[in-house]
Amino acid sequence: MEPVSQLLYRFDQFIVTPAIILIFTAGFFLFLWGLVQFIINLDEGGSRQEGINHMKWGIAGMLVMVSVQGILMLLNATFDLGIGPGGSYNPDVRSLDLNTIDFGGS
User: Domain range spanning residue 69?
Assistant: First the structure.
């Protein structure tokens, strides 16, 4: 079970989490762009709706990404998949020689 746990941990760490962060960030910037459009077009009637739509889709995208992260955390806690900081994945560091690592000190 350890190799499967390592595979899931690395898949989550290098693929799923960066994708969630990227899409969440895109939703945040879409929301900000919609807010800018809304503020610029306050005096005009019809073009304000485009800014409102961008803000709605930005909030929806951020909400979906938070929900996906919550579902992944729930699955991890329920089935003990070993991904994330609360998982059971515990790398073997017994063979690590700390004397060969440069920690930046003098």
Answer: 2-85
